[in-house]
Write a sequence for this structure.
């Protein structure tokens, strides 16, 4: 098996473009009509996370990295920005304090996190990390492929019965669909890592063709219908592994730009919903927020998230080497 690569800048760009797509979807003045399938970015995030986590940690866990150390690293990576996103929901919309620790609102009749609904996918990510830590990193291609196929089948059945993919995982009555989305995406990403690591393909090609990957993602979510959507978005999900595969083979030459897109993706995802709900009232405010929020996210990444993670690393580093920060393009 080839050593894990440390940088996948095309994945960075893809994740950043997906985060902007989610933001525009929730910008109701124009984004929902422009990118009706933007909610599918969450499924792409799950797949990218599965690949990135497997690439960064599978071999290290096989060599003795403890589940405790792994979960510390994930807590350090996730908590500062999710706490800021939760705090925005609390201050601006009266959210519950438990969201600061990613606890859903059990009193809510609909959304798990009604004042910042995007947090549901982070909760499911944490569940995937726990599964990975306690045995999931040992899963091989046959079992991962089985999980992907079962999850895909569950999604087809649930959508065929009238379920809305956009609600799966975000709402209490659709938790089962959320686990199916997670299983398809995260296990699919891990499967892609196994296939990529064993493929003996020549070195990645640095080419402007790599920009076709995020461009095709945008085209797919523009073409995919919004809810109610039937089975059509599932065909889009089936194309995501192809996009990720080409992102692994083609490297964007404009490394700085691709990295900045990766840097803004997680802060933007965490903060955009409560801010849009508070400050977008007409088309002009919607456009202003769509332009400004990515830059706000970049500032948060540089001046808040990174210093906070460094401080948490020092505070929580009880195992030798735990404070080490893993970097493989997409921050892990």
């Amino acid at each position: 098996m080839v050593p894990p690569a440390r940088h996948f800048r095309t994945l960075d760009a893809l994740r950043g473009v997906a985060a902007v797509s989610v933001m525009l979807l929730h910008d109701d003045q124009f984004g929902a009509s422009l990118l009706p399938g933007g909610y599918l970015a969450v499924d792409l995030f799950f797949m990218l996370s599965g690949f990135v986590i497997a690439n960064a940690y599978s071999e290290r866990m096989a060599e003795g990295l403890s589940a405790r150390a792994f979960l510390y690293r994930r807590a350090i990576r996730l908590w500062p920005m999710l706490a800021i996103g939760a705090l925005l929901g609390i201050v601006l919309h009266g959210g519950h304090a438990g969201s600061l620790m990613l606890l859903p609102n059990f009193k809510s009749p609909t959304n798990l996190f009604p004042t910042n609904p995007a947090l549901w996918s982070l909760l499911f990510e944490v569940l995937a990390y726990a599964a990975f830590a306690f045995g999931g990193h040992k899963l091989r291609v046959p079992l991962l492929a089985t999980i992907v196929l079962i999850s895909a089948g569950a999604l087809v059945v649930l959508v065929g019965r009238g379920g809305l993919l956009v609600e799966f995982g975000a709402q209490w009555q659709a938790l089962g669909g959320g686990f199916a989305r997670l299983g398809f995406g995260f296990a699919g990403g891990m499967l892609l890592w196994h296939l990529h690591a064993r493929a003996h393909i020549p070195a990645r090609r640095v080419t402007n063709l790599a920009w076709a990957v995020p461009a095709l993602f945008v085209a797919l979510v523009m073409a995919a219908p919004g809810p109610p959507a039937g089975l059509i978005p599932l065909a889009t999900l089936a194309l995501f592994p192809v996009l990720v595969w080409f992102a692994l083979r083609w490297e964007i030459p404009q490394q700085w730009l691709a990295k900045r897109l990766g840097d803004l993706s997680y802060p933007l995802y965490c903060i955009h919903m409560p801010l849009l709900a508070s400050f977008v009232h007409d088309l002009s405010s919607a456009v202003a927020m769509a332009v400004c929020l990515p830059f706000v996210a970049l500032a948060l990444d540089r001046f808040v998230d990174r210093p906070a993670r460094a401080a948490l690393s020092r505070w929580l580093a009880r195992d030798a080497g735990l404070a080490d920060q893993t970097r493989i393009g997409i921050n892990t």
